[in-house]
Amino acid sequence: MEPRRREVVGLMAGCLALLLAMRSMVVAMIVAVGVGRPRHLPDRTFRLDFHTKRANLRAMIYSSDTTCFNQIRMYRATFDKLCHMLDTIGGLRATRHMLVDEQVAMFLHILAHHVKNRVIQFEFGRSGETISRYFKLVLNATIRLQSLLLKKPEAILEDSNDHRWKWFKGCLGALDGTHIRVQVLAAHKGRYRNRKGDITTNVLGVCSPDGQFIFVFPEWEGSAADGRVLRDATTRPHGLRVPLGNYYLVDAGYSNCQGFLAPYRGQRYHLNDWRQGHQPQTAHECFNMRHSAARNVIERCFGILKLRWAILRSPSFYPVRLQNRYIVACCLLHNLIRREGVQDPLDEQLESFDIEPATDENMPIVPLETTDVWTNYREQIANEMFADFVAQR
Ligand SMILES: *[C@@H]1O[C@H](CO)[C@@H](O)[C@H](O)[C@H]1NC(C)=O
User: Fold this and answer.
1) Which residue has a Cα nearest atom 14 of ligand 1?
2) How many beta carbons lie within 10 A of that of residue 277, not counting itself?
3) Would you tell me the Gene Ontology cellular component terms (predicted)?
4) What is the mean pLDDT of the chain?
């Protein structure tokens, strides 16, 4: 090669090296920008994506636990766990357009604030069609976590010393119905109108003594009596099963029968009745007082559920079939959050929130079979309680 040619080639190689060096510097700078994040959160949630939408998501979810809780009603660690579960078990996939965490955040934000699709379009910079498609995808993935997130019932043991539950050996928890408002066609309103005149569905919820859902059954219209919903739930395949020797606490809207322990009718019952220092005078009153204190867990469960997810507090924009599915999803998320065991700000808020009053006794009862054995069983518990109460006095 002649000298002049060699010089040119050398110069070109030099330029190329310089360019490569500059490129890696730029890459290093870009990476450095993405590094200002809390160390304890795993990388997955921060996969580098320099799209402006990611910045929005970062501000909403990852900047602090306070904003995260305000936006999606759970803390960052719980959110991250949820994304991980949906990804690995629920089969939710990142797409070219949206990573898993953004899909999940959008879904939770809709449940938490019941915002209209149009508002989400603005907040997340996505089209209406995209939002509703991803909403359904995340919903289905969440429901696939059902067997994992629903609480497995555990009976109260003989030697339990929980002051609320020790009276109820073998008890698995409490159940009740709650009404959730819906929008339906005028032609269907009759079936959905409950006794207070609201258009609702009647959702049966069963929870454990520690306030996690064991079973949720959202399929009935608001006009259905609680007892009827329960009867349907217990006779369906994959419905509610109560093993022999176990039972749930129910209110006076249900009949007292095998597997479901109800209070005595026509007696003092509600917690408020006992707050003014009134002391039980009979075994039945004593039973009702203790029953009410323990059964209250299901009222609290529903109360916190509705406090957390605004979509359950006002008539939904969604069709009933979809609504039934996201009611279940809300309960599953409730369990996940309770399970994390971190202090839940909603526990305190609940005190000032007006829990819907429990079913009154004038509800028509749809009898499941009442048996003498079961009636005597209740009598026996009541007598033991009262004997104990008198002895302690
Ligand atoms: C979600 O599940 C429902 C019921 O199983 C199904 O009809 C629907 O097509 C699913 N939607 C998506 C987006 O996968």
Assistant:
1) 137
2) 5
3) nucleus
4) 85
End-to-end CA distance of the chain: 111
Q: What is the pLDDT of residues 136-172, one digit of tens each?
A: 999 999 999 999 999 999 999 999 999 999 999 999 9
For strands 213-221 and 247-249, give the pairing: unpaired
With a pLDDT cut of 70, the percent of the chain lying above it is 81
CA of residue 136 to ligand 1 center, whole Å:
7
Helix ranges, 236-371 (H):
271-275, 283-308, 320-340, 345-352
Ligand 1 atom nearest 140 alpha carbon: 1
* Structure tokens belonging to residue 269: 């019952």
Give the DSSP H or E segment for 113. helix 100-113
pTM of the model: 0.83
Give residue ranges with CB within 6 A of ligand 1.
Answer: 136-137, 140
| Total residues belonging to the chain | 393
Tell me what pLDDT residue 58 has: 85
The tokens describing 164, both together, are 């609320």
Alpha-carbon torsion 257, 260, 261, 265, what sign?
Answer: negative
pLDDT, tens digit, 9 for 90 and up, residues 29-43: 444 444 444 455 544
**Within 10 A of 123 (CB to CB), how many other CB atoms are there?**
16
pLDDT at 213: 98
| Residue 228, token pair as written in the block | 């009827």
pLDDT at 4: 65
For 309, the token pair is 């997810």
Report the distance separating Cα 23 and Cα 392, nearest Å.
81
312 alpha carbon – ligand 1 mean position (Å): 21
| Cβ contacts of 10 within 8 Å, gap of 6 or more | none
The Cα–Cα gap between 386 and 104 comes to 51
Residue 283, token pair as written in the block: 């075994």
Residue 124 — very low, low, confident or very high, per pLDDT cuts 50/70/90? confident
